[in-house]
Design goal:
homotetramer; about 350 residues; alpha+beta; Chorismate synthase, AroC fold; 7 helices; 17 strands
Chain lengths: ~350, ~350, ~350, ~350
Amino acid sequence: MAGNSFGKIYNLTTFGESHGEAIGGIIEGCPAGVSLDFDAIEAEMQRRKPGQSAIVTQRKEPDSVKFLSGIFEGKTTGTPIGFVIENTNQKSKDYSHIKDTYRPSHADYTYDKKYGVRDYRGGGRSSARETACRVVAGAIAKQILKDVKITAFVSAVGDLELKAHYSDLDFSEIEKNPVRTADAEMAKQMEDFIKVIRKQGDTIGGVITCVIQNVPIGLGEPVFDKLHAELGKAMLSINAVKGFEYGSGFAGTQLKGSEHNDIFNEDGSTKTNHSGGVQGGISNGEDIYFKVAFKPVATIMQKQQTITSEGDTTEMQGKGRHDPCVVPRAVPIVEAMSALVIADYWLLNRVSKI
Amino acid sequence: MAGNSFGKIYNLTTFGESHGEAIGGIIEGCPAGVSLDFDAIEAEMQRRKPGQSAIVTQRKEPDSVKFLSGIFEGKTTGTPIGFVIENTNQKSKDYSHIKDTYRPSHADYTYDKKYGVRDYRGGGRSSARETACRVVAGAIAKQILKDVKITAFVSAVGDLELKAHYSDLDFSEIEKNPVRTADAEMAKQMEDFIKVIRKQGDTIGGVITCVIQNVPIGLGEPVFDKLHAELGKAMLSINAVKGFEYGSGFAGTQLKGSEHNDIFNEDGSTKTNHSGGVQGGISNGEDIYFKVAFKPVATIMQKQQTITSEGDTTEMQGKGRHDPCVVPRAVPIVEAMSALVIADYWLLNRVSKI
Amino acid sequence: MAGNSFGKIYNLTTFGESHGEAIGGIIEGCPAGVSLDFDAIEAEMQRRKPGQSAIVTQRKEPDSVKFLSGIFEGKTTGTPIGFVIENTNQKSKDYSHIKDTYRPSHADYTYDKKYGVRDYRGGGRSSARETACRVVAGAIAKQILKDVKITAFVSAVGDLELKAHYSDLDFSEIEKNPVRTADAEMAKQMEDFIKVIRKQGDTIGGVITCVIQNVPIGLGEPVFDKLHAELGKAMLSINAVKGFEYGSGFAGTQLKGSEHNDIFNEDGSTKTNHSGGVQGGISNGEDIYFKVAFKPVATIMQKQQTITSEGDTTEMQGKGRHDPCVVPRAVPIVEAMSALVIADYWLLNRVSKI
Amino acid sequence: MAGNSFGKIYNLTTFGESHGEAIGGIIEGCPAGVSLDFDAIEAEMQRRKPGQSAIVTQRKEPDSVKFLSGIFEGKTTGTPIGFVIENTNQKSKDYSHIKDTYRPSHADYTYDKKYGVRDYRGGGRSSARETACRVVAGAIAKQILKDVKITAFVSAVGDLELKAHYSDLDFSEIEKNPVRTADAEMAKQMEDFIKVIRKQGDTIGGVITCVIQNVPIGLGEPVFDKLHAELGKAMLSINAVKGFEYGSGFAGTQLKGSEHNDIFNEDGSTKTNHSGGVQGGISNGEDIYFKVAFKPVATIMQKQQTITSEGDTTEMQGKGRHDPCVVPRAVPIVEAMSALVIADYWLLNRVSKI
């Protein structure tokens, strides 16, 4: 109820603050008998971790996951998978500059008002560090979904936008560049732009596109738990996300029905895919694709006016090592949340028929 | 689990197909002691019902709600509020043209694949008629939220777009025109455009903007159940919705942090509101505003190629009376879903502190 | 959250007060493709309804269920099954004697304190009339569980107790006598005893035993949602229930481990069944059996001292037609709740392995 | 859904096997602002831990809890409280005797059938070691419930039964004897009896009585989530529990309504308390009291016939250090589960009225 849990059958509950001893989680409802590839899990963690390239935060966090239960002789046992990720960075920091100060467009103010207390060391619970736990659970979900292919990539950084349809892009490019975009030339431009932004002590927003292929037909629960509604919630729950659109999205509002309708082929596939792989909230076997909008990171290396918890005006400036642009590191998070939703709905669909 | 239920504390479960005897629902978790204004509930139903103006479907459905429980001497008792809305239209229709045919971009195909059976009379469970139940529950939620003001309006029909910031619009215009847009001049243009589209036997998409004012500070559960994530899911669960953005939305991805950050006033309010009234998933007391993208209605009065359930190619054309543009009637649904989320999170926030 | 919903996958939500216009419910998560036998549902309703014999309440309530959705051409469609049962008795009554008076050992006082308002017409929401909805959902659950055999019977009325082990009883006797006990001779004694009690204007408690046979191995979720824990909750949620024991129950506390342990046969079955068909919270294929204790009905036809809502002492006496002993009519309710649990856990078990 | 989570608002999810690296859990929904007394938590852990007296298992497990999140400067922050308890005993053991053998009346067989894999090191997930996590969450729940007094004690060991009404017992005796019974003389008899049983290599069952005092009026959700139904489920979820009765319980079935009804005093309290502090599923302010039946521990130090996973007959004998009688160490677990339910329903009751 308090918002730290996600999924109906395949369920992740996370805990932990950015500067506590550890973060971690429990995966409940992972079916028994999944042979785990721990290297693959580790590889996903590496894609998310700080310090991986010149254009992300230079913090050093090994972000190694330790599994405590639910796995025996390399296989899931059907019992809950408990895991922890130690915080190695939590001790040395000095937080005096934010202890009594609300950082603009952070959650300091709202947490304080909601709870009456606030763990002022870094973002506390509101830190994006929590998403490391999602990557763990998502990496296992991917291993449940052997045939499903989930590919996310950066499709915009500021106004640098990858305009081609995803089917015209080369997905093998994505992991070759630090921006994680699907075009080598654009990657260079985006990288340069992010470096300029960083030099300004500023940050910039961006967009991630995600494509989910080979999804079985029939996933999605009608009415309130439509497949795209759950994907939308999953994405909007990621820090800094401001928007979600799938299939034709906002652009589709300008089309006529005669243009937008996806005409069937005889095998039930469709000639076009404005629907984005979901009709009536249920997957139809076509590619599911969607875009996720990320705002610029709120912590900037420039002086900003703000207020203290006493309501006095003050000035502050970001310290430490922060991401000038969040989207390169958010790519594996988008994929992880996608995997959580698809694995969950895939299991849930086992009870749709007698 | 099967997707017919919405809300954690204030919870609506709905049932019913478009052409069964009745649709209805149960509101669980409505607090005791709410004095109900039944006329206000009825008024919301009238805003959604078919046949209300020349630019919506001309079907005649009285859409009167009958409450069966949970209310005593005009007040809620804390027990579940059961209600039904009779389907008056369900008998006379001839469905032979869709019985064995999958309508393009409808849910016929996916329901059939998921469940192995399909109620082929109209949209069945996938019909937007289900949203009448949401309007009932939303109307009661609005009465719980005495001080909160929820205003939705049509901000685009096709490429006719209301570009002004919502604070520069006159909300009192909205219910004066059949399009439910917040500008008299634009209303005329949109109305004319919809009429042209209808004459073509076609349909057109649109956008609804919603503004929620006077929201208490502190609503929203961090991490997975952020307030905007739940609003996003609520909106994406409405039939025909393809996208959701709040605050700065997709446009915000092109801003720098120094431009996007909302600087505090001394009272904790902010000078700008790119955040859209939510920081870290929790309401900050500023206006919550968001946009919802609706695709064009799939049923068009033109011949389209499609397939039968046997996989044979055939041709079909919409019959009966359908909406050429769904957004005018979707305005009260967007408001209702907003009210459900805000009422639910308002109750949930009662347990955040000892 | 407010307690009107039962079940994880196969889920029943009920609404309705004893003297409102109707009671009813929504069954969510019933798999598609179940061919319904409506006569069998009706027959279960008849087993529960008032006025069926000389030893139960003589109220006349037809208790016919009307299905509104989720069923098409005799089969479930996977969408929610909405249903209503009209209250035919609700108009004529005079409640002035209980309007401001708290009946002893009823829920009048606690409802009033909890909610601040109370529907004083009969028991309102606390009336056992609500269990008619459980019988509807249980009757459908039984049809999902084709091979499972659920048999409940009265094993005690007051101190008249059926002492034989259930395997020595003739279950075919149960529906032949109005008490619903599994022994013709005892049936006569119990019936006579209940008549004496009624003549005294008094009521008497009793015990129901339930045996569930042919349960698949593997049902039950470890730790908090053990199969017997859910059965226990299901039974304790029935009006007037004061206790639940399964397998060896309270008597088993006096045994030694060497006496109590169930030794395996080579096929995995056990030589004894002190476990009651459940080991570690999971069904092992042996018969599940348990006992449910019912207190005497609180409404008696004798003068009792009580208080008004103002805290003044007063006297009252039950009016109308009430059950002198609740267990004969509770037999189908115990079976229904058993069916709800087993159907739910059977569906849930589909996701235990990859 | 997979049964490792308990509670609606104040929610505990646990993980861990008896012989993995650690067990632990996440408490979600603990309100912010609770000042924690860590010594009190530790004291509860000591009451449950092995090796505490001569009549319980002599295993050495320090059972120290380490909190990882959700607490800042000694106070809860409203964010999830993650914790781990290391397993110090997990390495040295030899499990070859149970690896392929199903222990009678344990969960080996049912886990293997349900999941297809089994962690054969000790009880794995089915071990009562898991209850240490419940004691942690219960100890915090007790600190939320400042005014509520929860007292459990052993009321029977085998056929040695404490027959006095709880109000005639001296609760201050309970922690003075290793059996945790509320009578010094009976304590001696029970202790001696357990020692005899242990010398026989056998085990014995028992009963725990629990009394909850000063419960606010109004806790409990009608219909399916009655307060006593949730307490019953909570107790039945504890390892080895076979039965639950509250108030008059099974004995109450032999009473007449005129004897059983609790007559009101003018202040709303009742002259008798057969109801056990709950009427219609809602607390009425009187003492809540109930009994919990525990079967004898299944592991005995005697040779027993059993089968292998291949279905061959074999013989086995318990090894290591096990409890001859589980009830002395189960007392804090019964209290912990009581505290979880009461805290949860106390929070839930905040939303019952507008």
